[in-house]
Design brief:
Helix 1 (155-173) crosses helix 4 (227-241). The chain has helices spanning 155-173, 180-189, 219-222, 227-241, 265-269, 271-274, and strands spanning 3-8, 22-30, 38-45, 52-55, 69-78, 86-92, 99-102, 116-124, 133-141, 148-149, 195-198, 206-209, 214-217, 280-283, 286-295, 298-303. The protein is 19% helix and 33% strand. The strands form four sheets. It has a seven-stranded mixed β-sheet with strand order 10-11-13-12-16-15-14, with helices on one face. It has six helices and 16 strands. The relative contact order is 0.13.
């Protein structure tokens, strides 16, 4: 059950469905507006690890100093036990950073899944009484937790790939270059098993198959071009793994022209990284155009000779 849990009074889950969350049911019942005896339950979000944190503390406990961003009041709960209420227990997973909340004193499967108890977060209703509303629970399998890497990829190289994937994930959430369905499909690909392998072809930066489960990276070629180029290559190839394709680039295609090539999801996803599309990299102090060619459903990014 280790992943990211999200709790909301919105029966539609706010943005949870399009962000790859699955609905898990009603966690408890709380109030949407403050009534006598209740206090706010504040919601915080960590953009890097995707964790949602809920607390009665208006200052967020240690959340602000740990990289969390304030998102407002999730609902209204009871600070102490009142008639008809039960404890709402808080659990924490030290490896994923996820916070999990449940009325079950046993934590459901939390302890078996690596969570540690953090006490009672607040008190809530177990059933819809006193005009309380359902607090819905959603769950998202942790992004990139199923990613694997060939043994010849060093720890330092793997950490950089993970960091550039994480940067891409953070950019996707606020990017308007992809529509909700495209974002959802891409995010769902980030929870799939994706193998990362190396390739030595001098004319290749990256390669992936459409609907595939593997990305090939020429680390010696790609890494010197910097973080943005790495993230753009990764997100482009992840879009291919998500099932998106594009036509072959022609000499008339130019970044931002909204034509048949640059208007496709893999090319539009690159805008999420750097704010614009680019088709030029510097190779041995010479500007070279970059393109993605598709042969037999295999997509290869590299400089044009």
């Amino acid at each position: 059950m280790a992943g990211n849990h999200f709790y909301t009074l919105d029966s539609q889950g706010e943005l949870a469905p399009e962000s790859g969350y699955d609905y898990e049911g009603i966690a408890c019942y709380a109030h949407g507006n403050q009534v006598p005896g209740t206090v706010p339950l504040y919601r915080w979000f960590h953009p890097s690890i995707g964790d949602h944190f809920y607390t009665q503390d208006a200052k967020g406990e240690a959340a602000p100093s740990s990289g969390y961003q304030y998102e407002g009041i999730a609902c209204y709960v009871f600070a102490g036990q009142s008639l008809g209420t039960v404890p709402f227990y808080r659990w924490f997973h030290p490896n994923t950073g996820d916070h999990f909340y449940t009325m079950a004193s046993s934590g459901e499967l939390a302890s078996q899944s690596g969570y540690i108890p953090e006490g009672v977060a607040c008190f809530v209703y177990p059933s819809p009484i006193n005009n309380s509303q359902p607090l819905y629970r959603w769950f998202q399998v942790g992004f990139m937790t199923r990613f694997t890497y060939d043994n010849n990829i060093t720890d330092e190289q793997r950490e950089r790939l993970i960091a550039r994937h994480q940067f891409a994930l953070n950019q996707i959430r606020g990017c308007n270059s992809l529509n909700p369905e495209e974002k959802r499909n891409l995010l769902q690909t980030y929870v799939r098993p994706i193998q990362h392998s190396t390739i030595d072809d001098a004319n290749v930066f990256g390669r992936a198959r459409i609907n595939g489960n593997r990305i090939w990276i020429n680390i010696d070629n790609l890494f010197p071009f910097g973080d943005n180029e790495i993230s753009q290559t990764l997100i482009h190839e992840m879009m291919h793994c998500a099932g998106y394709t594009h036509p072959q680039r022609t000499n008339n295609d130019r970044p931002g022209d909204n034509g048949a090539y640059y208007s496709t999801p893999p090319l539009r996803s690159e805008i999420c990284i750097a704010g614009a599309q680019s088709d030029v990299v510097k190779v041995n102090d010479i500007d070279k155009e970059v393109s993605c060619s598709i042969v037999n459903n295999e997509c290869t990014i590299g400089p044009i000779n």
